């Protein structure tokens, strides 16, 4: 009975499916064999694969890959970040029509890769290792073109589509199951040291190029239209658009971040 329980505990459907898809990709494109083996098939868990991929991407003359691998591996295991990573991975697979399997985000999508690296930096920040967390922020920005302060709090199931030029400030909070597109800014409006960045509720969809500025709340399951500048609180389940953004209607569905419907009206 004990062996059966231990066996069931070790089952990881997400990782098992990723391995199967990696083996299939290897058969279809042997030229990617070295990448697929080193990034996925060589490892025994998603956590190990993430540590390897983060270290490979962020390594530089200032911080070698092996050192980053040890930091990432220890942090991901000790902080139990695997649940967040799996939720992020499934969010990309389910919401991004350009994603056709579980291997793509890990191997090719900089939005997913950057968020996983941020999660390591955030854990370091909470552990008081702020200089090392700032190093992660700097390298993530340089490598992926995404600037997320390590103190920002981001829930599970985040999907960033295209992911270019994302900026998330120090006191920002992003809820669970949020989707945002490229060039989104969650920024401040002044130089105050206290809370100065947005608080984004669960299930929110933020369109490309939208700017949400100041210590304001964006209610759960709301939509922010592309190119909008949001300066005031957004009630739950509403759609806002414009510069400055105004309420233009209901959210249109129960879960805008899941359906990814960005059409107004």
Verbal overview:
With 265 residues, the protein is an alpha/beta fold. 44% of the residues lie in helices and 15% in strands. The protein has ten helices and 15 strands. It has helices spanning 2-10, 13-28, 33-41, 46-58, 65-78, 82-95, 103-108, 110-126, 130-144, 256-259; strands spanning 146-148, 153-154, 159-161, 166-168, 173-174, 179-181, 185-187, 199-200, 205-206, 211-213, 217-218, 223-224, 229-230, 238-241, 246-250. The strands form three sheets. The chain has a six-stranded mixed β-sheet. A hairpin with a 4-residue loop joins strand 14 and strand 15. The N and C termini lie far apart (57 Å).
Class inferred from helices and paired strands: alpha/beta
Could you state the order of secondary-structure elements as H and E?
A: HHHHHHHHHEEEEEEEEEEEEEEEH
Q: Which term fits the overall shape?
A: globular
Compute the average pLDDT: 93
Number of helices: 10
Biggest pleated sheet: 6 strands, mixed
Rg of Cα set: 19 Å
Question: How would you describe the oligomerization state of the chains in this entry?
Answer: single chain
Task: Give structural attributes.
single chain; about 260 residues; alpha/beta; globular; disordered N terminus; Hexapep_transf_CS; acyltransferase; Serine_acetyltransferase
Present the secondary structure layout:
Elements: H1 2-10, H2 13-28, H3 33-41, H4 46-58, H5 65-78, H6 82-95, H7 103-108, H8 110-126, H9 130-144, E1 146-148, E2 153-154, E3 159-161, E4 166-168, E5 173-174, E6 179-181, E7 185-187, E8 199-200, E9 205-206, E10 211-213, E11 217-218, E12 223-224, E13 229-230, E14 238-241, E15 246-250, H10 256-259
Parallel strand pairs: 1-4, 2-5, 3-6, 4-7, 5-8, 6-9, 7-10, 8-11, 9-12, 10-13, 12-14
Antiparallel strand pairs: 14-15
Helix pairs in contact: 2-3, 4-5, 5-8, 8-9
Pathway: Amino-acid biosynthesis; L-cysteine biosynthesis; L-cysteine from L-serine: step 1/2
GO molecular function, one term: serine O-acetyltransferase activity
Domain Serine acetyltransferase N-terminal: 14-117
């Amino acid at each position: 009975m004990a062996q059966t329980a231990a066996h069931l505990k070790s089952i990881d459907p997400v990782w098992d499916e990723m391995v199967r898809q990696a083996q299939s990709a290897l058969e279809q494109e042997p030229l990617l064999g070295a990448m697929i083996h080193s990034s996925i098939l060589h490892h025994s868990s998603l956590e190990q694969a993430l540590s390897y991929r983060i270290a490979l991407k962020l390594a530089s003359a200032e911080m070698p890959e092996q050192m980053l691998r040890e930091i990432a591996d220890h942090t991901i295991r000790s902080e139990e970040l695997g649940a967040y990573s799996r939720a992020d991975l499934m969010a990309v697979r389910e919401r991004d029509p350009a994603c056709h399997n579980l291997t793509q985000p890990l191997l090719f999508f900089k939005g997913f890769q950057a968020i996983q690296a941020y999660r390591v930096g955030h854990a370091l920040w909470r552990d008081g290792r702020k200089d090392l967390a700032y190093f992660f922020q700097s390298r993530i920005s340089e490598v992926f073109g995404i600037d997320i302060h390590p103190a920002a709090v981001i829930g599970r199931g985040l999907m960033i589509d295209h992911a270019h030029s994302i900026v998330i400030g120090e006191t920002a909070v992003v809820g669970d199951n949020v989707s945002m597109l490229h060039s989104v800014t969650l920024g401040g409006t002044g130089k105050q040291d206290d809370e100065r960045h947005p608080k984004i509720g669960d299930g929110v969809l933020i369109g490309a190029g939208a700017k949400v500025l100041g210590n304001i709340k964006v209610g759960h399951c709301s939509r922010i239209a592309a190119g909008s500048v949001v300066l005031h609180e957004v009630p739950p389940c509403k759609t806002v658009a414009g510069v400055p953004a105004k309420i233009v209607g209901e959210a249109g569905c129960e879960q805008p971040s899941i359906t990814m419907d960005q059409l107004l009206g």
